[in-house]
Every structure is written in C-alpha cells, then in structure tokens.
Amino acid sequence: MEFDHDLQSMQEMRTAVKKAKAAQKDYEAFSQEEVDRVVAAVAEAAYDKSKYLAELAVEETSMGVVEHKTIKNQVGSKDVYESIKNDKTVGAIHEDSANKITEFAYPFGVVAGIIPTTNPTSTAIFKTLISLKTRNGIVVSPHPSAVKCTVEALKICHDAAVRAGAPEGIVGWISKPSMPATTELIKHRDVHVILATGGGGLVRAAYSSGKPAYGVGPGNVPVYLEKSCNVKKAVKMVVDSKTFDNGTICATEQAIVIDQNIKEMAVRELKNNGAYFLEGAEKEKVAKLISPAPGKLNPNIVGRPARKIAEMAGVDVPPDTRLLIAEENQVGKDVPFSLEKLSPIFALYTVDNVDQAKEQCIELLNLGGRGHSLSIHTNDDQIARMFGEEMPVSRLMVNTLSSIGAVGATTNLKPSLTLGCGSYGGNITSDNITTRHLINIKRLAYGVKEVEIPKPSASTQNVKENHKEENDVEKVISEVLKKVDTDEVDAQTVSAIVSKVLQKYQ
After folding, report:
1. For residue 457, with 0-12 CB atoms within 10 Å meaning exposed, 13-18 middle and 19 or more buried, which class applies?
2. Where's the Aldehyde dehydrogenase domain (predicted)?
C-alpha cells in the first residue's frame, strides 16, 4: 500500500521529535566533559567529509562550486567548533563573587532546524554542533531540493555523536520533507526553539509559531568602493567574494557603489577579473531572466555560473566570464538588477561623494536587505566608522570579502551560518547565531543590601477606616432602599439621612 507523501512526512517528523525529546532528557544529564567529547567527535567527522558533502550538494542542487562548498563545510565544522569548544554550557557557567551572583546554564530542549537549499550541508553541520554543545536535541527539516545531501550530513553528525556516547535520536530529520510537516514541526508542543534559515515565508512562520525563534532576513548587500581604497585589491576581493560558491551566501555583495573619482580604474579592474558588462538588449534579456515578475527572483539562476546565466538569457559572453554587470541608476522591485540575486550578477551605481554613497546604500538596503550586512573598501577609518554608525545593518565588513567575512572566515566575527538582522530586519537578535543563543541562564543571587520596611502610618490607617465607613454607608442605603417606596424617597435623600445617623453615634 502506497502512503501519501505528506502523511509519511508528518509521521516521520513526529517520530523524530519523540526520539529527540527522549534522547535530550538523557543528554541533559551529561557533564561538560561528556558534552565536549560528543561535540569534538561530530566536528571532526563532519570536517573529514567536507568535500564529499560538497560534491553531494552540487550534484543534487546544481548550485555552487564544489571547492567553495567544501570551504563552507569546513567553516561550519572546524571553525565553528574552534569558536565554541571552550564555551561553558553545563552547570555553573559564571560566578561573580563581588556581586554574589552565580549563573547556571540549562538547555531549551528540542531545536527545530530549517535548512536552505543554498547552503544545505554546512548549515546542517553548524546547527547540529551548536545544539549538541548546549545539550539540546535537534530535528531538521531540509529543503526538498537538497534533502539527500542534508540528510547525509545529519547522519554523519548523528553517528559520530552516538559513537562518542550521545543517546540515539539526539539528531533527527525529515527525509521526506513537506510544507505541512515543516509547519507542524515548528509548532510541535515538544519543540522548544526554532533556528530558521530559508525563505521569508518560512521565517515568518517560525516567528508566528508561538515559540522562541531565531530567523534571518534577506541580504541585499551593497559594497561601497570609496575613493581612498586600493582599487586593484578591492576589486579582486569583490569579484572573488561575489563568485564564491556562485553567490549563494546571503552576505554576498549584490550591488557595487563606486566613487566617480575611481570609476574608470574600477571598471578596468573588473574587466581584468572576468566581469562582462551588459548593455542595451543584453541587459534587457538578463533583466527579464533575473525577475520574470516585479520583486520575484527566478530560482533557476540561483547559484549558477555567470556563463550559464548568460546562455539562459540568450547572451554570448567570453569563455573566461566570471560575473555579469549592468550599470544602474534606479532601485526598486521593478529594477531586477537592484534585487538580491544570489548569483554572480551585479548592479553598478556611480556616486559623486560619500553622502551620495550613503543614500544609495540605504536605498538598496531598504529594498530588501535592512539589518543584514554591508561591505566597504576604504583606507579612511573615519568613513568606515561613520558607515558603521549610520548604516541600518548588523555587520559591516571593511576591506575583506563580504560573503565569507560575515560568517567569520576572514574576520573575527563569530563563525556562524545563521546571521541575525536585529530589529532593522525584524529579528530578535543582530548576532551571528552561536551557542549562547541556545541556552537559558538562571541566576543565584544572594542578598547584599539591608532594607528597613516601614510600618503603615496613621494616615494610611485613617484612609482604610474612611473607606470602611463609606462601604458601611453604601450597605445601609442599599438595605433602606429595599424597604421603602423608591418613587417617594430617592437614594440621595436616604444617603444624607444615614450619614447624619452614623456621625451622631460614632
């Protein structure tokens, strides 16, 4: 008998949550040393399979570059592990002897992980590591277009964890994912926190689930080449970053904003690094391919090489083309090149000065990247600091590759594959998500201040007595009105009489 796919998906999800809940209860009793042994084993196993998982991901999704996905898997395993290995996540994690406060960590319980098709294996590894480090279980819903490679990554992590002593089922997944099962997962009574990396609809669903949730917004990242920058070095970094894994990282640059003073040199360097400039009919063809309807990205171009995209649009480009660029002077949902494209396609904007650059960057961010990231290349620290203070983003990379700099590969930002966008982007945090976001902290606080509690004053007592008298009057009035003809005597008259009587006998 053939069961309905959605029913199979739903049952698989419920079974995985049940197992993860039971496993987590056992895992919660692990010591810090036992937890650290599990996490180290998982990180090593995932790192060893970095290239294998990258090959699976490219084969299944047709997105990205094997060598680049290998690096992402290495960041998601080794770099993440190195950044969290010394974190205290069990028992007393901090003691403030001066203020007599001790902090204790305790886990959420079961984590629901939503994984994107653009970074399927690296994100699965990363979310598993930070969940296990914090004594949580995790159940993952892969993207339907990347289910095989995501599940394989999770199996590698699960098996390594179990070999290191973790209970069976501590890492779970849905091998037949469906939207109903994913929706039910994030609402399940035994799921306690959600890590949502994916499309806007899924992130909104996570936030409306009634559970604590960490989601991310879109990353329409501008990169500003300020006139003081080293143009040759800056352009090479931008091109390398934009073409890294064919633009599938959400922190990848989406539009270049260039000072007029260095435009000619920058364009020459872009061409030297494999950029092809689209004009006229070519630009129109690619624009229609990028966005068939206003504000809607064509998913068929995501993570594809520039030459493949040009071929899809019917545009001939040289064989060494690495990215496609079109000059723009407008921003909007009906301007395809100004959108987040998740592919090696750039819009290029020219500005006269820093003030215009700020306005241009904010306009691009307002289109769909508020709160995420911005990149700037400059040798003027004051300008960098000004952008850091004024731009509505959560991270600003200076003189580095934005795509991998934001996730901590070329910067000292916390290595992470889930980047919060703060209140600018409607997120609860602006951090790179890591272990501290998956633990609760309770605090033991000793009394350190003596406080004398004053006794009630005479005036307070009089207020109480007066209030009692008012209640007595109202009670007598109510009794009298029940016994008299209210057509002849009104309540106000009765009130006056009762008050006089009470005053006489007090």
Report:
1. exposed
2. 11-272
| Average pLDDT of the residues in 129-157 | 97
Name which residue leads in pLDDT, 219 or 239: 239
Q: For the chain, percent helix, then strand, then coil, each to nearest 5? A: 50, 15, 35
Q: In what order do the strands lie in the sheet with 221-225?
A: 275-277, 323-327, 345-351, 253-259, 221-225, 371-377, 393-398
- The CA distance from 313 to 297, in Å, is 14
Mean pLDDT for all residues in the chain = 92
Residue 204 confidence (pLDDT): 80
The continuous run of DSSP H or E covering 213 comes out as strand 213-215
Residue 103 CB burial class (10 angstroms; 0-12, 13-18, ≥19): middle
CATH fold of 221-413 reads: Aldehyde Dehydrogenase; Chain A, domain 2 (3.40.309)
Query: Residue ranges per domain, the chain?
Result: 5-216+435-445, 221-413, 466-498
Q: Alpha-carbon distance 128 to 125, whole Å? A: 5
Q: What is the DSSP letter of 4?
A: P
Q: Which two tokens stand for residue 421?
A: 């966008």
| Residue 352 CA to its chain's centroid (Å) | 34
Contact 432, 416 (CB under 8 A): yes
Q: Per-residue pLDDT tens for 324-355?
A: 999 999 999 999 999 999 999 999 999 999 99
Whole-angstrom CA distances from 132 to 33, 45, 228, 493 are: 13, 14, 46, 77
Class level of CATH domain 5-216+435-445? alpha beta
Residue 145 and residue 116 in contact, taking contact as beta carbons nearer than 8 Å: no
Q: Which residues are marked as active site?
A: 250
Distances (CA, A) of 387 to 5, 29, 238, 381: 50, 47, 18, 10
Per residue in 453-467, pLDDT (tens digit) is 998 887 766 656 666
The b/e string for 297-311 (b: 16+ C-beta within 10 A; e otherwise) is bbeebbbbbbbbbbe
- The partner residues of 221 in beta bridges, in order of sequence, read 253
Instruction: Give pLDDT, residue 171.
Output: 98
Average pLDDT of span 306-335: 97
- State how far the Cα of 174 lies from the Cα of 151, in Å rounded to an integer: 8
Q: What is the DSSP code (8-state) at residue 337?
A: G
User: Would you call 209 helix, strand, or coil by DSSP?
Assistant: coil
DSSP per-residue string spanning 221-271: EEEEE-TTS-HHHHHHHHHHHHHGGGG-STTSEEEEEEEGGGHHHHHHHHH
Can you give 427-481 as a three-state secondary structure string?
Answer: CCCCCECCHHHHEEEEEEECCCCCCCCCCCCHHHHHHHHHHHHHHHHHHHHHHHH
